[in-house]
Amino acid sequence: MHANGGAVREHYLTYNQWLSQQPQEMMRARREEAEMIFRRVGITFAVYGDKDSGEGTERLIPFDLIPRVIPAQEWREMEKGLAQRVTALNRFIHDVYHDQEILKAGIIPREQIIHNAQFRPEMMGVNVPHNIYSHIAGVDIVRAAQSDGSGAYYVLEDNLRVPSGVSYMLENRKMMMRLFPELFAGQRIAPVAHYPDLLLETLRSVAPNGVNDPTVVVLTPGMYNSAYFEHAFLAQQMGVELVEGQDLFVKDDFVFMRTTRGPKRVDVIYRRLDDDFLDPKVFRPDSALGCPGLVGAYKAGNVTLSNGVGTGVADDKSIYPYVPKMVEFYLGEKPILNNVPTYMCRDKDDLGYVLANLSELVVKEVHGAGGYGMLVGPAATKQEVEDFRAHLIANPSNYIAQPTLSLSTCPTFVESGIAPRHIDLRPFVLSGTKVQMVPGGLTRVALKEGSLVVNSSQGGGTKDTWVLED
User: Fold this and answer.
1) Is the separation of the CB atoms in 275 and 267 below 8 Å?
2) Which InterPro entries does the record match to this protein (predicted)?
3) Tally of CB atoms within 10 A around 404
4) How far is CA 138 from CA 39, 151, 156, 387, in A?
């Protein structure tokens, strides 16, 4: 919100003027009102392994009243970079399961793909509509200081399998409009409420060939899943059925849904469960969450799965360092959005550097998620660093490392008042017959002072994200 010299940045001027006139008691009352409404609606998330409250408790995601504001020009550049990156990633997934040109060119080592836990040999040679595998991508972006004092956006992670969080983006906006309608009357803030319409349009556009009026469903693992609220919310917002695996069956390689009027053919499944649980005939035989025969119908081209089977091969952290090269290889363009510099610990020289500088780096498991299985060197104790060193030496190929970025902060309304807290941004990129997204995304905030971990599953919160229109 403030530049290095302390001056308020131009795109925050109007909001800052408003905020400076608000009594703290009023802001506290608004926060309590927001919590009450969120609790009533049932907007919860599972926080796993929380020391204070027992294992796996349902919690409200803390909602912060102070928005993150992005100027129009910055968003336009980010939007172009996101479309470019997700297009290249979809080309890569198609290539991996077909001609493997990028492997033949020596750009990515073959063993990095073949031995990847997310690589699905069952998908080799399988054609999907428009060659699109990741129809809904959540790309995690951070803003960090550069040596000249300016800020730049970096991609921290690509989520191409079952990205979550978009319901919180939509509910946060609704809440801000309810609590502070005057702020929206005085500024041109780009809307996000049309996301469910764009999502449905995207899903319908990738229906199997020859299907003119596709039936779309949302497939959920069930009400005990940590993101069940989102599954139900999106199905309701799109006006489509929310189904579980037991509601579906396959006959003659077509998928049907059981209804009170008899079986109804299903053409597009927005699935919110991982590959392993989709079809007990192909993946985990003990899965009761999926539908037997589903992958056979998918391979026959009679149903579209969003996202496609095997997309995880492109969002593994061991593949992340190669994404800029993918952009150049498939699109012949320079990447608009940069990666964070990354050390691959399976490389002997990189490993040597990481071990020598462990207390200054962030080290992550290549298959880790949700902020688990990682070391934030500067915030770790000597004992934690040494314990992690042992894991790293035992299995170096399981880790990557990155410098600790000077992440941007945003004013956040905490118990002590307004204070800076680190943030990231997850825009949601939809890929159908065209690539589109709503302006902004979900801003996640690390509520603990000095913390860099924003994940909701570890107690992080969220903010509304405002993209100011010209």
Assistant:
1) no
2) ATP-dep_Glu-Cys_Ligase-2 (IPR051680), CP_ATPgrasp_2 (IPR025841), UCP005522 (IPR016450)
3) 15
4) 26, 22, 11, 32
Q: Under 8 Å CB-to-CB from 88, ≥6 apart: which residues?
A: 323, 326, 327, 329, 330, 331
Burial classification of residue 18, based on how many CB atoms lie within 10 Å of its CB (0-12 exposed, 13-18 middle, 19 or more buried): middle
Burial class, 314, CB count within 10 angstroms (exposed 0-12 / middle 13-18 / buried 19+): buried
What single DSSP character describes residue 33?
A: H
Per-residue model confidence as pLDDT tens digits over 101-155: 999 999 999 998 998 889 999 999 999 999 999 999 999 999 987 766 678 999 9
The pTM of this model reads: 0.92
Tell me the residue type at 169: M
Task: Judge: domain 341-403, CATH 3.30.1490.270.
Answer: yes
Are the C-beta atoms of 467 and 437 separated by less than 8 Å? no
- Torsion angle defined by CA atoms of residues 74, 77, 79 and 82, in that order, rounded to the nearest 10 degrees: -120
Handedness of CA 294, 296, 301, 302 (dihedral sign): negative
CATH 3.30.1490.270 range(s) for the chain read: 341-403
Six-digit token string for 454: 């924003």
Q: Distance (Å, rounded) from C-alpha 447 to C-alpha 376?
A: 16
